[in-house]
Design a protein that fits this description.
29% strand; 2 domains; alpha+beta; Fumarylacetoacetate hydrolase, domain 2
Length: 288
C-alpha cells in the first residue's frame, strides 16, 4: 500500500496517519495539509518504518495535466547547442520557453529508465530542479509567486534528440517516451531551503557532466510562475521543471548519448539524488 511519509535524513520514515490523502491531496488542502505534515514531523508517537524496508516512489504520481517544463533556462545551455539543433536554431528568447511531457514518463527516484534504441538513437540526460505548485492560481503576480510554491525536488528530463528534430522542432514527442523521467526522491518544503544556495549536478557512469547553481537560472522561479500562469490556471500539485544547465550530451564534441547499462545520477544541495540505470525495454511493440 502506498503511504505518504516524512524523512528527516536518518534511517526512519514517519508515516502520515491513515486514512490520509495522497501527497497531491495534502497539497490541495493548503495550510491545513501543511500543518498536518508539520504535526506528524513533530510527533514522536507517529507510526514509523525503516527506510530500508520500503520502496521509494515518485512523490507526485497523480497528475491532472501534463508535466510542465521550461527550456533554455540557463543561458550557457542555450548557447552550447547553437549550430547543433539541425537547422532548428532560434534567436535567444526574451521570455521563458515552455513545453510539456506526458505523465507516463514519470518513474521513481531509483527505478530503471526504460531504453529502446529502436525508438531513438540519441538519448540524452538533463538534470533539473522541479517546482511543486502548492496553491492554485491564475495570472499570479511575480511578487506573489513564491507563495504558490509548495516545495522542490529533482528530475532527469531524459530526452530523445532525434525525435525533437523529427517533429517540426516542437519538443513534446521527444520528451514523452514512457518510463523515462525519474522524479523525486522527496519534496523539500519551500521554507526549508534557500534555493539560491542549491548546486545541481548530473553524473554519468561516475563522471560529472553538468554542474550549476540554481542562482544561474535565466528566469527566476517567480518569473516562471508569473509568465506561465498568465491567463492560465496553475493547480496545486502541478509539477514544473525549471530547465537544465549546460553539459548535455548532444552539445558535446563528440556527442555523448546514454544507452542501456549506463547509470545516471542527478543530485542537488538539500534535494537528495536520483540514481537510475538504463535498461533495455520493448517500447516499440504494439500494446493495448
Amino acid at each position: 500500500m502506498d503511504r505518504v511519509a516524512l524523512w528527516d535524513g536518518g534511517g526512519t520514515l514517519r508515516l502520515m496517519p491513515e486514512p490520509s490523502p495522497d501527497l497531491v491531496g495534502l497539497i490541495e488542502l493548503g495550510d491545513e495539509g501543511l500543518a498536518s505534515v508539520r504535526a506528524v514531523a513533530a510527533d514522536a508517537r507517529a507510526e514509523q518504518v525503516s527506510l530500508s524496508d520500503v520502496t521509494v516512489l515518485a512523490p507526485i504520481r497523480r497528475f491532472r495535466r501534463d508535466v510542465l517544463c521550461t527550456g533554455w533556462n540557463y543561458w550557457d545551455h542555450f548557447y552550447e547547442s547553437e549550430g547543433k539543433r539541425e537547422g532548428q536554431d532560434v534567436p535567444k528568447p526574451d521570455a521563458p520557453t515552455f513545453f510539456t511531457k506526458a505523465p507516463d514518463v514519470v518513474i521513481g527516484p531509483y527505478q530503471d529508465i526504460a531504453y529502446d534504441a529502436r525508438v531513438s538513437a540519441k538519448w540524452d540526460y538533463e538534470a533539473e530542479i522541479v517546482v511543486i505548485i502548492g496553491k492554485t492560481g491564475r495570472s499570479i503576480p511575480q511578487d506573489s509567486a513564491m507563495s504558490h510554491v509548495f516545495g522542490y525536488c529533482l528530475a532527469n528530463d531524459v530526452s530523445q534528440r532525434d525525435l525533437q528534430r523529427r517533429h517540426g522542432g516542437q519538443w513534446f514527442k521527444g520528451k514523452s517516451v514512457d518510463q523515462t523521467m525519474p522524479l523525486g526522491p522527496w519534496i523539500t518544503l519551500r521554507d526549508d531551503i534557500d534555493l539560491s544556495t542549491v548546486v545541481l549536478e548530473c553524473e554519468l557512469n561516475g563522471e560529472t557532466m553538468q554542474r550549476a547553481g540554481a542562482h544561474e537560472m535565466a528566469f527566476s522561479i517567480g518569473e516562471l510562475i508569473a509568465e506561465l500562469s498568465m491567463g492560465m490556471t496553475l493547480y496545486a500539485g502541478d509539477v514544473l521543471l525549471t530547465g537544465t544547465p549546460s553539459g548535455i550530451g548532444n552539445a558535446r564534441t563528440p556527442p555523448v548519448f546514454i544507452k542501456a547499462g549506463d547509470t545516471v545520477i542527478v543530485r542537488a544541495t538539500g534535494l537528495g539524488e536520483l540514481v537510475n540505470k538504463l535498461v533495455d525495454v520493448d517500447l516499440k511493440s504494439y500494446r493495448q
